[in-house]
Amino acid sequence: MIRVKSFDLKKGVELFNAFNDESRIRIVNLIYHHQEMCISDLELILDFTQTKTSRHLGFLKNSGVLKSRKVDQWSYYFLNSAFVEFVSQLYIFMEKDSTLLNDLEEYKTLYSNNELAIRRMHNKQNKYKLPALGSLK
Question: Which of 28, 51, 77, 98 is 20–30 Å from 61 (CA)?
Fold first, then answer.
């Protein structure tokens, strides 16, 4: 894994701008805790429109925080490995935030109910990641 040990002022501004919006913080939090997410799952969990979700994902991808990959008709977004340590440190400060915790619980409920695209992909791969309801990572 490549890690960013330092960055210049311009990259710092881009990075901090990526986290200056509650919606983007919530999106990255879900992706950070679950490795990857697609737009439809994020929309469902966060109750965002497709337009809002796509706009924020585009911003996060352009800033370098996220990358994506295509699987069939789905685009799955994941953290740029260079920023995992930075993001990890950021979420340590917000680990008890009720909104972020509620988002993680909503993911668990929807995943358990087989309502998320990521669960359908896991089913195809026989790779279940059924989270224990009521407990967080």
Answer: 98
In angstroms, rounded to a whole number, what is the distance separating the alpha carbons of residues 8 and 48?
A: 33
**Counted domains in the chain:** 1
The pLDDT assigned to 131 comes to: 57
What is the span of the domain harbouring residue 22? 9-94
Which segment of 72-81, 111-120, 127-136 scores lowest on mean pLDDT? 127-136
In this structure, what CATH number is given to the domain that contains residue 51?
1.10.10.10
CB contact set of 52 (below 8 Å; sequence gap of 6+)? 23
CA neighbor of 82 nearest in space, from 28, 5, 30: 5
Residue 72 identity (one-letter amino acid): D
pTM, two decimal places: 0.85
Residue 40 has pLDDT above 70, yes or no: yes
- Residue 78: strand pairing partners: 36, 67
